[in-house]
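Bench notes, bay 3.
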Amino acid sequence: MRGFHLFQRLLLIAAVCPATIQSVNAVDNGVEQPMSAMLEPWTGPFGGVPPWNLVRQEEFVAAFDQAIDQAQQEIDAIANNPEPPTFENTIVALEQAGRTLERLDTLFSVHSSNLNLGPIPDIERAVSPKLAEHADKITQNEKLFARIEAVFQSDEKSKLTLAQQRLLDDRYRNFVRKGAKLEPDAKKKLSQINMRLASLFTDFSQNVLHDEQSYVTWIDDAARLKGLPESVVAAMASAAKERGKPGQWAVTNTRSSMDPVLTYADDRPLREEVWRTYYNRGDNGDAHDNNTLIAEILKLRRTRANMLGYPTHAHWRLEGTMAKTPQATMDLMMQVWPKAVARVQEEVADMQKIADEEGAKIKIEPWDYRYYAEKVRKAKYDLDFNEVKPYLQLEKLREGMMWAAGELFGLQFKETTDLPVFHPDVRVWEVNDADGNHVGLWYFDPYAREGKRSGAWMSAYRAQENIDQPITTIVSNNSNFVKGAPGEPVLISWDDAVTLFHEFGHALHGLCSNVQYPSQSGTSVARDYVEFPSQLLEHWLDTPEVLSRYCVHHQTGQPMPQELADKIANAATFNQGFGTVEYLASALIDMKLHTSDRDEIDPDAFERETLKEIGMPDELPMRHRTPHFQHIFASDSYSAGYYSYLWSDALTADAAEVFDEAGSYYDEATAKRLYDSVLSVGDTIDPADGFRAFRGRDVDTSALLRKRGFPTK
């Protein structure tokens, strides 16, 4: 998920960021370049829209140079203001600085995430360190920090609203955390570290993208497709045809292609080949191997944290979160870990029993887990998700999400076709509230393509604010569903449907925002809180209202039978051992990497040793192995923060029980309290206070164990 106001992204050093590559640098020996149209204010309806039609890739580097220069001039004007520092002329002025750079960053970020082809990788390598350097120039500006500190310590602070006080506190503390109080030599070294990290982040991401695009499992014998659903086979045939091999089948190296093969393919050697190809991304011992990059990233992060007065990178990253300390995250994770491992042992025993009864003569391996789990699911719950998939049409589920948003928060979606988009697959909806007032735009980019990073995410193209005038938000959801044959509906798995609702929850968090300052808008909240609203929205997928209206058979149009819906509900906690352990293993590795006191770390060895130490079952892998763990090595944003999904899910499980107690997930009073206390307030209040206002008390973590079907004692 990407959704921060640019000033925040710069302070987090989490945007794209590395050293100028002359071959793509359009600034020629100091000769001023003409202004790119990409730097102009956005025009058109709804307060302006992203001008994708005006993007010229060859202009990006020069445009960034100009936008950064303009942003620096705006920062200097604030720092050198002769008037005494006030909240208005310093803190609010910072909120409004860098608008041109923010717009340009949005255009480029979408290309680097969704259209990473041709010159884009080299442009990203050129631009990334420039953004990192610019971020440091802001936080290391002594005059600017003196003004912020003066406002922070002034009598004016007590007269500010609570939201303004929070914005001021956050701005002051972020500057301190970014080295504003360091000596000049230390500031210089810190900036060098940040620029180097920016380059490493980009190289890491590009290496993973290379392995996702370059490794394909080819199938030329139809007999090897046995067990796979027809829709999956058709998508594999289409992928092969697109790659110039009609008559064959291609398994691309992404989760959406890997998962159904591991789940349904009877051909065990095929499952193993696909598994090894996918989980070895970034770890193939070639020019795109990420282990050396990771070792350097970890060392630089530790050095930076020590310079800033923190024992580890994790302590530095967690200071502004709900968890506060690494130990608090470990306490929660280790509360769940042994229960999840015990459940895995039960799940494996059930699978091994079926394999033995079939005469397979195998020991369950990671490439067998999903396959035999489906057999256990069918035996225990009489549930075959192949029977569910015909009812999961992507377009109908999209309609269901929108309908639920209308029932809960009064949001109305109207598709518009006259706005520019960055790819023909992208569609746009205008979003209005119950009174017909415009609240934002929602862009939907659902399909996989070459140059698009894997996974699913939400982005904010423009933050909601109301400083001088109301400015509405623009958000997007991006996925990697595989297109079927022309004219055929795209059918997705149950897990993908859950993810679809999850990411839409992030979008709703942005669309419901009603704050004054962009840095406090929508999803600009603590990392371990931001997943709470999105995880909560997952619960609306299996409400009877959505199932009956929008989960309809793609051929007959009949709603999902109640018997099948009941089976899904009865199996809700099935395979939770697998789901929890594969996630938590990655979260624990993340936290242990970033609290380690080792001077040098061999990532592969550290991973093996740590998994053995915590008792990782042999029968399944981490969700994200270290060499392709983009959450924590493609930027700083989730580093020492992957635990946050579990932290947020503790909040989610407890909050969902409020709707259960109300008797309906569409209870108006409960939905209004969720909107008022969580979705609309952004980062204007402490997350713990927002949750407490909604729930009526602090979180009860035992709800998390109940949700996953684990014992609570």
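Next record in the batch:
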Amino acid sequence: MTSTADGPGAVTATPAQGTSPPHNPAEGTVTKGIGASLAPVDAPAKAEGTFPYAADLWAEGLLWAAVLRSPHPHARIVSIDTAQAAALPGVHAVVTHEDVPGDAGHGRKVADQPAFARDLVRYYGEPVAAVAADHPDTARLAAAAIDVEYEPLEAVTDPEKSFEAEPLHPDGNLIRHIPLRFGDPDVTGDIVVEGLYRIGRQDPAPIGAEAGLAVPRPDGGVEIYTASTDPHTDRDLAAACFGLPPEQVKIVVTGVPGAMGDREDTGLQMPLGLLAMKTGSPVKIAATREESFLGHAHRHPTLLRYRHHADNEGRLVKVEAQILMDAGAYADTSADALAAAVSFAAGPYVVPHASVDGWAVRTNNPPSGHVRGEGAMQVCAAYEGQMDKLAAQLRIDPAELRMRNVMATGDLLPTGQTVTCPAPVAELLRAVREAPLPPLPKDSPARDWLLPGGPEGAGEPGAVRRGVGYALGMVHMLGAEGADEVSTATVKVNGPVATVMCAAVETGQGFATLARQIVQETLGIDEVHVASVDTDQPPAGAGAHSRHTWVSGGAVERAAKMVRSQLLQPLASKFGMTAELLSVADGKITSYDGVLSTTVAEALEGKELWATAQCRPHPTEPLDETGQGDAFVGMAFAAVRAVVDVDIELGSVRVVEMAVAQDVGRVLNPRQLRARIEAGVTQGVGAALTEHLRIARGVVRRPDFTGYALPTALDAPDIRIVKLIEEQDVVAPFGAKAASAVPVVVSPAAVASAVRAATGRPVNRLPIRPQAAVGG
């Protein structure tokens, strides 16, 4: 792809999102279309390290950018002196808030964050200025040479203190409060258990750090090449910041090196565009690992207080909860995360009465935002901790207690919404409960890595205790509370080749592969290309909540069916029948009576067909003043059984096995589905044991992969997918459900449950600290 701009020259961007590889009959009985295990076409290039990402882009006359970030979590900006930085040889431009022509801020749901801090800095690492220079080292030196005088202010880093603190933002400290009331608030149970739970700040930690390239346009606008997951929203935010109409800003999506929410941050796009327009040259930035940790949003740290009421048989009577989410300095998607947390606060269990209060507040901590399973993951850890407490109090097997309370289709959420989608929660739990357990370790393990703590672990076999824990969880699919979920797709056929054009970004979730499968299934064409994404195409929305499988996949299917009608109608008319009497399969077109039989290639010869279609699910509604409303389009469920070995003297934990049963609706690509579940479980194990971005008085400590411990291949447990339930959701295209978020939600709770079983300790904090795993 080349830039439309003159002067700076051609920009090398990513190729089309994918082209169908020749199908391999040896791979299985289904070799193409829906149900086939098609491999992503870009998999070899990614494995070999040759796939082009934003960090690989280049343009003639390229300049390099660097961003100066605040060293304080809260301070007043007294003055900014850029003279020394601008005078350095090789420096072409320096920009601050004074160079921002537009008044709008940025933020995914609430645009309350300025491109550069103006009068105040509100978190450690907030952008204050940016530099463009002819070498990346020069740019960094120049950024460091900018003289900013700060007046440090008291930082509010405890969300509980945010309610009484002075306003940190013109919009105040309280972002949202949801008081959910369901049933009779005065009802009590025979058995009552209480708990206080804390969930840490998990980072998306993409292996590929953020990068981008901005190229000025001859019309005074700018093109930005970056790994956006919602290019049209990013374009609109950037245009408002630049003081330009949207048509003068173009976002071109490059290869996305992983996306679990962090790619929705627009913090780099603003300085890139401003510098490119000011210098008249292409400007590139490639974030360091530290800048990556400071620049994107994290999972909401959450404090949860719970009280569960049950009868003497263990059946839930009422759930009371208080949920406090730390949004950091800016709102971003915190209102949405809070809605999910409050709505799913009781989990996939039947609860006749509930009283839940949820708050999202601003602090001077780094911003929180959308990370896979937001809201649902935090409450799952808490309500499953409560279920373990109830089981211990009643002396009931923890799995049996859960079985007595599981939700099914037709039950009500505490929001009053009826669960109309398939909800086979009992079957999921039964599957993991009945799955064979892994063998116990020998008294003297032959391999040291079997001990918790790894090869160099100092533990003794006699101190190791095994624990088995269970967790059930749920997520919502698509947006919620009235979000207009719509996507547009175009399918073009020229002879034996089909092309799909849709602004749904391939982030690793497999949309490009799914789009090819849909066209193969519908049109019987083997060679299918998926075009690269930019904002010249109609919008398709963000890639969160598996929405592209549903909404964008549905748009591709509708467009492909329209092309199919264009293809079949002339043939049907020729033989005096309707198009519905013709079928397309294995590259052949046949009539119901066998009179007509031809190949798709012959029927398409010399023709060019195309169609554009939209998919828009049924509308939802916002939660009302008591937390009631049909806020969600659909839900997906999973059950996980965790088996852990814990050294009760050292507190080290080894996850031996994770058994997963999941409600998937319909398996569209078996290999891809398995990969998504395994990745989700591994991310959940990281949240349970190691992943926590440490903040001390608002300052991020050790923002690198030595201070932030991601699970490696050696830490990943055996993951057994014991059951996939294919009960199709009739309102979803293909009947499929979200695949990757729900194992992230459930796995941390399952690991915590297993550690409780091994140690007898309460384990009320994630990630689990060693001292919490020391038991008897």
